[in-house]
Design goal:
four-stranded mixed beta sheet
């Protein structure tokens, strides 16, 4: 089944792409969730107009992502955590903890956009990438210190 994507779908394509998907995936997921429309003659003609709308939306999203990236570049987080001897943490610092600290710093970010490979389990300084937009991933510095 060929469909035209109305929105960006991760690991599938960008808005406006004409792609071939399995019939069930298109019929049961993409079309009911309004992520895509069937690629028939009428929808293909409407795609030309929609491309301009999609490009305008993408430019606006890009500007928002760039401003978020600039704000993130200026942020340096210090997260206090309970630690034992030798700097090992009781528990771990996860993407949720970093997202909460960013929100307190005035830069709200969804925890799913915090690209942390493994939870932080040691005291120290770390570089953490944040997904600001489609291809913008600025790094912030996170300093984990022992609570006193």
């Amino acid at each position: 089944m060929k469909v035209i994507l109305r929105e960006d779908v991760e690991k599938l394509g960008k808005a406006g792409d004409v792609i071939k998907v399995a019939d069930g995936f298109g019929r049961n997921y993409l079309i009911p969730n309004r992520l895509a429309v069937p690629a028939d003659v009428r929808n293909l003609k409407a795609l030309d107009h929609d491309r301009r709308v999609i490009e305008a939306r993408a430019k606006k999203a890009r500007k928002g992502a760039e401003s978020l990236a600039e704000r993130l570049a200026a942020v340096a987080l210090t997260i206090p955590a309970k630690a034992g001897e030798e700097g090992k943490l009781f528990g771990a610092i996860t993407s949720r903890d970093i997202a909460d600290a960013l929100e307190k710093a005035g830069v709200p970010v969804d925890r799913k956009n915090v690209l942390l490979a493994d939870p932080i389990k040691q005291i120290g300084d770390y570089k953490v990438r944040i997904k600001a937009g489609a291809d913008l991933q600025p790094e912030i510095s996170v300093s984990v210190v022992a609570e006193s």
